[in-house]
Every structure is written in structure tokens, then in C-alpha cells.
Amino acid sequence: MHQAGLADWQIERFACDFERLQRGSEAFLSESELSPLEAAPQLQELPACDWGESLARTVIIKLNGGLGTSMGLETPKGLLPVREGKSFLDLTRAQVEHLRSLSGSGLPLLLMNSFHTRSASLASLHGFGNASLPLDFLQSKIPKVRQDNLEPVDFPTQPELEWCPPGHGEIYASLRGTGMLEQLLQAGYRYAFVSNIDNLGATLDPALLHWFSQSGLDLAMEVTARTEQDKKGGHLARLQSGGLCLRERSQCAANDLAAFEDIARHRLFNTNNLWLNLQSLQQQPLPQLPLIINRKTVDPTDPGSTPVYQLESAMGAAIACFERTQAIQVPRSRFLPVKTLSDLLLLRSDLYRLDECSRLQVVSRRTLPQIKLDSRYYGTYEDFEKRFGSVPGLLNCESLSLEGDIRFGPGVRLEGTVNLSNSGPEPLLLT
Predict the structure, then answer these.
(1) pLDDT digits (tens, 9 = 90+) for 276-300
(2) How far apart are CA 227 and CA 320, in angstroms?
(3) 148 and 200 in a common domain
């Protein structure tokens, strides 16, 4: 890490996590230690308000460190086209520009980039600026560690794969270590709204901003009701001490998995939309977040390559570390992540529209359809683009299952329960 030019704070942080790995300190939260979080204050119960003075003291931070590897891409996920040829980053920029014009404020947009995403992402923001502030701060990079001997992995054919980002839990250390926190405070900023770049539902909301600015909280987490599709995601719970905690699946022992996935018991999950008090972050010790040990191969596309550990943490886990924290329940419309190509298909369809503020709005309907795509033909973004030259209408579709090579031309609408199969060697084109 010294040879790679990393700073002392980055090396010290990795050393702490590596020592925890050596000690076998993978964090587990037993079901017996927790009680369900039954309810939380709700956004819809907050009084309507205008932007007020708090907007001038607020910064938007987008987590932009990931590549679209799960979709077969090696480019920043934030640059993936979503609607009308515009990427996540394009739409986020347009949202911020709209708020600036509405309020007359210089609302900053900051990216937490990784070494994978920085160059291309900043290039895409050409012509956009934050006055006296930079456009981003950089996450650390850490060595991938061999599972057999805990040595840094050696991969000379692609040495960049020897490194990985340490997860979005590093945001607290990165804000401090890069000097960004001090810059923000000196410029008069007091609040940060943090969310994933791929969640277009995570827009700055005046009622939430007013509530948080008046709350005296160090950190607030937006949560929403779990559904069957969320049962493997992290949920909120209460510790025996009465404090809040976030439990991820990786922190759950095998005999607790059934309770973890019980959405009637653990009803609320983390949207990864957080509100931070920047002064509290400066004044309190850095949160010691639970260690997440991800078991991977050095080349994620090659399951036969060397098995490694990637040491990570989740930023939402800080809800158990700060003194004054709160969960607030928000509608599902504030959680629209794109984790799979099925998610991307939904967002590109007529189930959504872009409003005049460049926000993604759900078109009125009961529930979104369940989508199942044949991974042999829809496994990568390139495959997806080839077969969905035009996105079919899904407004009245209850579920969609595609098996085989099926391609869509313009004007196709799917309704009800749709199961399409093509067992032949040639593509089936629907028009």
C-alpha cells in the first residue's frame, strides 16, 4: 500500500480490518440479541414545507465507486444509460441543476469515487462544477487477500485485479482522511444526504431535510417495508440496549437465516439513503463498523482463479455507532435501485416516466411485475441491448418469463402473465 502511494490513514484503516480478519472477528448478530423494529416515524406524516435555509447548508453525496460487473460491464455503473439515453449520473446532474435554479443555491453534488470510476465519471461531468468545492473525493483501495494464507494476492496478467474498494462503509474515514469533511464545514455545510448512484428514487426531499435539520440527530436512515424480493437484504432491528442496528445477511448465522428472511418479523430494511450531521462526524470518533468478509475469486469472471477475501463494511451499520440516530420510513418510490438487468428493463419501460425535474416517477399501478430473464441470452448488458432494441410495454403485465433467444421490436405490449419460450437455434423477433 505504501508502494502504491496510499496515505497513512488508508493503510492504518486496512491494518485494523486485517487484524480483525486474522483474529476471526467476522461479526455475527444473533437473533437472540435482537428484537424487531416494529415502527418508525413516516415521511408522509411530516408537515409539508419549502426548502428554507437548510438547503444552503446541505450537500448531496452519491456513492459512485462500483462498476457494472454484475451486468458484464467494466465501466462505472453510474454511466449506464437508463432513460432516454441518459445515465444515472446524467439524471443526477440534471436533478441538482434543477434544484439550483429553483432555489438560487449552489447545492453541491459530490461523488465518492473509487480508483475504478474516477476518471470516466469526472469526464462525464464536463461543464458542471461546485464553485469552490471539488466534484469528488476518492475512496481508498485495499489488497485482495488470499484465502489460503492471508497474503496479498498476486495476479500479474491483470494487476489491477489485485485491488478492490473497501465498501461504502469507508465514507466516514474518507470524508475525514481526504480533508473533504473539513472543507465542507469551513464552507458552511452542515448536512449531507448520501445515497447510491443507481437509486434514482433517492432525491433530495424538502420535508426530510427540514425534519433532519431540526432533529438534533447525528444520523438518520431511510427505511421501507420489506417484500419477498428484499428478504436477503439488510434489515433494521433493536439491540437489547435499545439502540438501533443494521443486520446484513453476512452477519447472520445459518440457524438464524429463517428469522432473518422473515419479512413479517423484520419488516423494515435499509434503503442506503442516509442523512448525516457533518459536525457530529467531526466531533465523534470514527465508527467502528462490523467487518464484512466477502469471499470471491481474484478475477470475478473466472471462478477457477485464486480464492480471495475482500474486506468491506456497510455505511448503514453506523446507525449503531453514533449517539443520536433514527430510522424514518419512506415510500418504496424512494428505493429504485438497479442491481440486475431485470431492474433495468423495468426502469426503461412504460412503468416509469421522467418528470420535468428529471426525477423518475412510478406510473400508477398496483405492483411491479416479476421479471425472469434467461441468463444464457440476457446475462450481460451487451446481450440485453441486442435483444431489447425496443422495450415492450409492461404497464399491464403481471409477470414476464423469457426462455431462449427472444428479441423485441417496436410497439410490443405484454399483458397479464407472460411466459415466452424459443427452443430453436434462430432468434425469435416479436413485432
Answers:
(1) 999 999 999 999 999 989 999 999 8
(2) 24
(3) yes
